[in-house]
Structure formats: C-alpha cells, structure tokens
Amino acid sequence: MALLISCCDSRVNGLSIFGAAHGDFFVHRNIANLVPPYHTDNHGQATSAVIEYAVTVLKVPRIIVMGHSKCGGVAGCRGMCEGNAGALELHGLRTDIGSGELLAFDGSTKDFVSI
Ligand SMILES: [Zn+2]
User: Where exactly are the structural domains of the chain?
Assistant: First the structure.
C-alpha cells in the first residue's frame, strides 16, 4: 500500500494509471495535489492529517504525489505568483476543531473569522 496524493480533476485516476486494485492505495485528493507545510494553528490540516494517518496507522512505505498536465490548480497558483490572483477567490466554511466554532472565510483578510 502507498499513499497517493493527486488532483481533484476528474481526468486523474490513479488506480487506472498505475493499474492498481482497490486497497492498493490510500488516496487523498485536493486541487493541484498540494502538500502544504505543516502548521500547528489548525489551518488547512486536511493533507497533514491524511499523511499522519497513512504513515503512523497504515504504515505506508511510500507517498506518491501525482501531478498532471494542464492542471487548472497549478495554473492558478502560477497566476497568483505572477500577481494575477483576481480570478482566484477562496470561499467556504469550516469548523474549528478545538472549539467547534463555525468559521467563514473573509476574502479581505484572507483568513477564517467567526460568524
Ligand atoms: Zn489538477
């Protein structure tokens, strides 16, 4: 078994690309198959939690980060680095794991705030 981190794009199907069977991979998908740096502030910890579970509980010997051609997420990230982030806005709600408080994303501060 390996941990496979891939893009949410429906054209990306790791099982068929590797000719794998169900159970061969523990799969995590996100936009542009990003693996953000670990933080202790409870922000964006989904990928870190998956990696921790795969390594400590499932004891996977390998982690595969699989990108793909013409990825819109990667193009968006590149656009942000080039100062063209106008088309990218993050929206959403999340629950703070520690307090259970429901938070909303504030586009002006680029952070989650109480609602
Ligand atoms: Zn993609």
Answer: 2-84, 89-115
**82 Cα: distance to centroid of ligand 1 (angstroms):** 19
This prediction has a pTM of: 0.69
Cα 65 to Cα 28, 32, 76, 98: the distances in Å are 10, 10, 18, 29
Q: Are 59 and 68 in contact (CB under 8 A)?
A: no
In the chain the beta strands, taken as DSSP E runs, fall at 2-7, 25-30, 62-66, 93-95, 102-106, 111-114
* pLDDT tens per residue across span 21-79: 999 999 999 999 988 877 777 666 889 999 999 999 999 999 999 999 999 888 887 87
Q: Which fold has domain 2-84?
A: Beta-carbonic Anhydrase; Chain A (3.40.1050)
Q: Which of 24, 29, 68, 77 is catalytic?
A: 68
